[in-house]
Amino acid sequence: MKQRAKWFLLLHVILGIYAGSSVCSKLAARQPFLSAAFVLLYGGMLLALVVYALGWQQVIKHLPLTTAYANKAVTVVWGIVLGALLFGESVTPRQLLGAAVIIAGIVLFVRADQKEEGGQ
């Protein structure tokens, strides 16, 4: 169980990195094309995607694929949080409701998946 929690935590870290790649992308889009800032930010986005891809491969070796994919929806929640914190974007009640539904769905899915594994 401890190992599963470790991989579950790593899954959420790499999903946060994946969402962070969008931050680099948005910041790069604000820079003049091929300027030093553009190249650094775009490179940061590519690096984040490589780290995500390598981490994802390790996670799906240790967690059920259904669990890993169900948790990918949390990147939407990360997007809302990062948009609000870094870009001052407003968070609407619909977005909060959507985030709550996503989190509730992930929790319910993971619990059902754990019960199913325990019952076999």
Automatic annotation (TrEMBL):
SUPFAM superfamilies linked: Multidrug resistance efflux transporter EmrE
GO cellular component terms, A-Z: membrane
UniProt keywords, alphabetically: Membrane, Transmembrane, Transmembrane helix
Presence of keyword Transmembrane helix: yes
Transmembrane segments: 34-56, 68-88, 94-112
Domain EamA: 34-110
InterPro entries: EamA_dom, EmrE-like
Keyword Transmembrane on entry: yes
Family stated for the protein in its record: Belongs to the EamA transporter family.
Protein name from the UniProt record: EamA family transporter
